[in-house]
Design a protein that fits this description.
The complex is a heterodimer of chains A (398) and B (355). Chain A has 398 residues and is α/β, with parallel strands linked by helices. Chain A is built from 13 helices and 13 strands. Classes of the chains: A alpha/beta (398), B mainly alpha (355).
Chain lengths: 398, 355
């Protein structure tokens, strides 16, 4: 037996023994952790906003476990990147369902969440998405879909009411041709009609766009006072910069994913008084009671890291899920239907001001109706106003 | 006793399994796939940490597609960068025929294959004049045209939101679980493999090889180049179309995101890694390409107990490792896994008396 072969045998043996011990040790644990699946975008088209969100979920997992977990049981968030690809999300979903046997998943995009919603309902797995698509809020159709925040459609309604108050008479919708971008547009057009705002032809700017001149020049013919941006921060900053370059007078108001702390770096001074945004979440570092926990724990976990409002979004999603798990555990129902019922018992649940109070009922999964409007002014993000829509039954689900 | 394989009649030469030994092995393996694997799959999943049944289903579906492109590229020598889109045509066709026109599954699936074959033959017409790189670009155009159609012909395809599909029903029996679906895709994959193996030994198959090896000589020998190239495109697209139909009914949502340029390249990678022109190459290549990304995830999940943030770093690393492994393969095993399989088998056949 040559040396090489002997070495291989020894290595293989040690690996086998090590694995055997590793497995044996796992079985010896009395309290199994509660596994939660995680589908995040770290490398895909929305990774610019997805990384911080995923980071928040991982940090929240650690925080939850350090503060006692769920009735003494830890939670384990299996985080995976799906690169914003629907097929990969379906892959991960099957993995979590059949191998990890989870009953709760922290998901991400609109396209994949909508693609999964029928299976989620069938498998009775609670799915908390980072897609705030209104189509996910009607429990008659999607009983196991939840999200924390305010839906895209309600945000666009607030945005149009806001621009109407600013004296806007002509409006244009700019968004990527993607389920995420298209989701709130019907709601926006309907309310624009009610408010008597003229809507120009839609413009399509992709999530990975590096130039929007063509679309903006086309938009200039209609010359709207305001335009909606339905992309993410990088594509929105491209539009803002190109609009400034072309000398357009149009102001822009974006979906919450289009506007965060990074816009100050990406767009710079041209965003001043030009770029507004809707957002139900409190920006990172602002003084609300719930922020103190987040700041304290980041001093401990990663003092050098710079976070954005995406961190608050991911954090809030995890905190609401934690509350649901605690209530479900108290009822002795740690499973999909149990967690669903626990979440539906949340009434005006406070996240310490990180979001408006969260309410779910068995007939209405709209978490909140409150939206704030922010803008860039003087090189800083400034809050303009906070409003709340009435919880109209007619607006449920679209 | 003969010391090798000597065929004395045409019947023997055209057998799918040249030796009795091989025949028993293959049938034994098929029995294993039908009777044993599906029932040990859940236990196996827990041990290795990946969803075995799902992986096997994906492999069966993509094996059909890989055979398709292997017929075209491996056997006929016509490169195609449009097979990802052709698979999409099959998927949408199967989905629309099944959901909108309420055709029974055993009609809608072959019909989807035929529609894809038609589309493939149309885009194969340039192959009469174009070769090599030029054909690659022409088929790439097909990829972009079809992909654009899938996204923007909203009334037919549902646009970027995708098209919801139901699990198929065969004579009132709904294949609603992955396990039930497994028997369907496995059967289709086995039939597709046997048909391809047989096809390559017929007149048509010989013509394909002749065109691949030297199209001028083939033409001089009387092979109608245009006819056989189009036939090759047709059969190849039919295979990918069937794969697309199976995929649609398995994944339950068809969207244009599934069928991008990347899928076309993956198909090419499958047969290059597996072995161009070998039936078994398509199978090996598919297994490799489907399993590798999943296997690369396992160490990350194990490590994440110790380093909670490792997944964020590895998310980008995974694609790199994937690329690296493919390069390593091309350098050390340019003839693909099929060639490696043959050498390994020969080694053990003669063991311990190999020289």
């Amino acid at each position: 037996m040559s040396l090489k072969r002997a070495l291989i045998v020894v290595l293989a043996l040690s690996l086998a023994v090590g694995l055997a011990f590793g497995c044996a040790k796992k079985k010896a644990e009395v309290l199994e952790p509660i596994t939660v699946g995680g589908i995040f975008d770290i490398t895909g088209a929305t990774s610019a906003v997805g990384k911080d969100y995923a980071q928040a979920c991982k940090d929240a997992e650690r925080y939850i476990n350090e503060s006692g977990g769920v009735e003494g049981r830890k939670i384990k968030l299996i985080a995976n990147d799906y690169a914003y690809k629907i097929p990969e999300a379906l892959n991960l979903y099957k993995q979590y369902r059949d191998v990890n046997k989870v009953f709760a998943i922290q998901g991400w995009g609109t396209g994949d969440t909508n693609a999964l919603k029928e299976q989620i309902t069938k498998d009775k797995i609670v799915y908390i998405s980072a897609s705030y698509d209104s189509a996910l809020t009607n429990p008659k159709k999607t009983p196991y879909n939840f999200f924390v925040g305010t839906s895209y459609s309600d945000s666009i309604r607030v945005a149009l009411k806001f621009v109407k108050d600013q004296g806007c008479s002509k409006f244009v919708f700019i968004y990527p041709d993607h389920p995420y971008g298209k989701a709130p547009i019907p709601a926006g057009k309907a309310i624009a009609k009610d408010l008597g705002i003229r809507v120009g032809p839609d413009e399509i700017v992709g999530l990975r766009a590096i130039d929007a001149t063509t679309q903006l020049l086309h938009m200039k013919k209609f010359n709207p006072e305001w335009a909606w941006l339905g992309g993410t921060t990088p594509s929105c900053s491209v539009i803002i910069k190109d609009a400034a370059k072309l000398g357009l007078k149009t102001k822009f108001i974006s979906n919450l994913w289009g506007f965060d702390e990074n816009i100050l770096k990406m767009a710079g001074a041209v965003a001043n008084e030009r770029f507004y945004s809707t957002n139900p979440f409190t920006f990172y570092g602002l003084s609300v009671p719930g922020m103190k926990t987040v700041l304290d724990l980041n001093k401990k976990y990663s003092p050098k890291a710079v976070h954005t409002v995406r961190y608050i979004q991911g954090w809030s999603a995890m905190m609401v899920m934690w509350e649901g798990l605690k209530r479900a555990a108290k009822a002795g129902q740690l499973n999909g239907p149990g967690l669903k019922a626990a979440l539906e018992s949340l009434k005006d649940f406070s996240t310490g001001g990180l979001t408006p109070p969260i309410t779910f009922t068995p007939t209405d999964h709209r978490p909140s109706m409150g939206v704030s409007i922010y803008k860039v002014a003087g090189g800083k993000i400034v809050k303009v106003t906070s409003t709340s829509l009435p919880r109209k039954a007619a607006w449920l689900g679209w | 006793m003969p010391s090798g394989l000597f065929h004395t009649s045409y019947e023997k030469d055209e057998q799918i399994f040249p030796t009795l030994w091989l025949k028993y092995w293959v049938w034994g393996f098929i029995l294993f796939l039908y009777l044993v694997l599906p029932f040990i799959a859940p236990a196996l999943s827990n041990v290795v940490g990946i969803n075995v049944l799902h992986m096997v289903n994906m492999i069966c579906i993509f094996v059909v597609g890989a055979h398709g492109i292997n017929i075209l590229t491996g056997c006929t020598g016509q490169i195609s960068l449009g097979h990802g889109a052709f698979m999409g045509v099959g998927a949408y066709a199967a989905a629309i025929l099944f959901m909108r026109f309420d055709l029974p599954f055993f009609i809608s699936l072959p019909a989807a294959g035929l529609i894809t074959a038609g589309v493939g033959m149309i885009f194969g017409i340039p192959s009469l004049r174009l070769k090599g790189l030029y054909l690659a670009i022409a088929t790439m155009a097909a990829q972009f045209i079809i992909n654009y159609g899938m996204r923007n012909w909203t009334s037919l395809t549902g646009g970027s939101g995708g098209f919801s599909v139901k699990r198929p029903e065969i004579f009132g029996y709904v294949l609603d679980t992955d396990l039930k679906y497994y028997f369907l895709v496995l059967t289709v994959a086995i039939v597709a493999t046997l048909v391809m193996k047989h096809l390559l030994m017929t007149k048509v198959g010989r013509a394909f090889f002749a065109i691949r090896d030297r199209y001028l000589s083939a033409q001089i020998m009387g092979v109608n180049l245009f006819k056989y190239r189009i036939i090759s495109f047709g059969i190849s697209s039919f295979y990918v179309g069937i794969a697309g139909g199976l995929f649609a009914h398995y994944i339950l949502v068809v969207s244009d995101e599934h069928f991008t340029m990347w899928l076309s390249i993956q198909y090419l990678a499958m047969i290059i890694i597996g072995g161009l022109g070998h039936v078994i190459g398509g199978i090996f290549g598919t297994i490799f390409m489907v399993l590798l990304p999943e296997l690369l995830r396992v160490p990350v999940e194990l490590l994440s107990d110790v380093y909670p943030n490792v997944f964020a770093v590895f998310g980008t690393l995974r694609e790199m490792v994937f690329g690296m492994i493919i390069i390593v393969f091309l350098i050390f095993e340019p003839d693909g896994l099929a060639a490696r399989w043959a050498t390994t088998r020969d080694y053990w056949k003669l063991w311990p008396f190999s020289y």
